[in-house]
Amino acid sequence: MTQYASVRYVVDDVPAAVEFYTRHLGFTLHTSPAPAAFADVVRGPLRLLLSGPASSGARATPPEAAEPGRNRIHLIVDDLDAEIDRLKGAGVPFRSEPVSGPGGRQILVGDPAGNLVELFQPASR
């Protein structure tokens, strides 16, 4: 059995979230037992749990912690500029401008529920 590191995102619309992650960010659908309530997608060792309002994961979330955006998943890309161009062409909403630092460059995109995804290109070593 494959071992994944799992992250749960609470989303408003499970099918829209599945479409976003599989179409734009290279995830594949892992399971979708209740399409309106829950699905999970994988990319490498990351299993992203997409929990809709009817899911137990969403119902267990206290109201003060239900807003998206405080945490984010971090996806490494080979060419940040090419990813920015590709995603802009697809109409994906950006939540920041590119930022450079000693470790590399990054930009934030928002999924359909407003959760953040960081695209990161490591600095050349």
Describe the structure.
The protein is α/β, with parallel strands linked by helices and 125 residues long. It has one domain: 2,3-Dihydroxybiphenyl 1,2-Dioxygenase, domain 1. It is 20% helix and 38% strand. The protein has a 4-stranded mixed β-sheet with strand order 1-4-3-2. The chain has a 4-stranded mixed β-sheet with strand order 5-8-7-6, covered by helices on one side. It starts with a strand and ends with a strand. Residues 3-122 form the VOC domain. This is VOC domain-containing protein. One of its GO terms (biological process) is L-methylmalonyl-CoA metabolic process. GO terms for molecular function: metal ion binding; methylmalonyl-CoA epimerase activity. It comes from Cryptosporangium aurantiacum.
Summarize the structure.
Keywords: Metal-binding. This protein is α/β, with parallel strands linked by helices.
Task: Detail the topology: elements first, then pairings.
Blueprint: E1 5-10, H1 14-24, E2 28-34, E3 38-43, E4 46-51, H2 56-59, E5 72-76, H3 80-89, E6 99-101, E7 104-110, E8 116-122
Q: Which structural class is indicated by helix and strand composition?
A: alpha/beta
CATH topology: 2,3-Dihydroxybiphenyl 1,2-Dioxygenase, domain 1
Radius of gyration: 15 Å
N-end to C-end Cα span = 35 Å
Helices and strands, in N-to-C order?
Answer: EHEEEHEHEEE
Low-confidence segments: none
Q: Order of strands across the biggest sheet?
A: 1-4-3-2
Determine the strand fraction and express it as a percent band.
35-45%
Q: Superfamily at the CATH H level?
A: 2,3-Dihydroxybiphenyl 1,2-Dioxygenase, domain 1
Helix content: 10-25%
CATH class category: Alpha Beta
Total of helices: 3
Mean pLDDT across all amino acids? 88
By CATH, the architecture is named: Roll
Number of domains: 1
The main sheet comes to: 4 strands, mixed
Number of strands: 8
Apparent shape: globular
Pfam family, one: Glyoxalase
Organism: Cryptosporangium aurantiacum
Keywords: Metal-binding
GO molecular function: metal ion binding; methylmalonyl-CoA epimerase activity
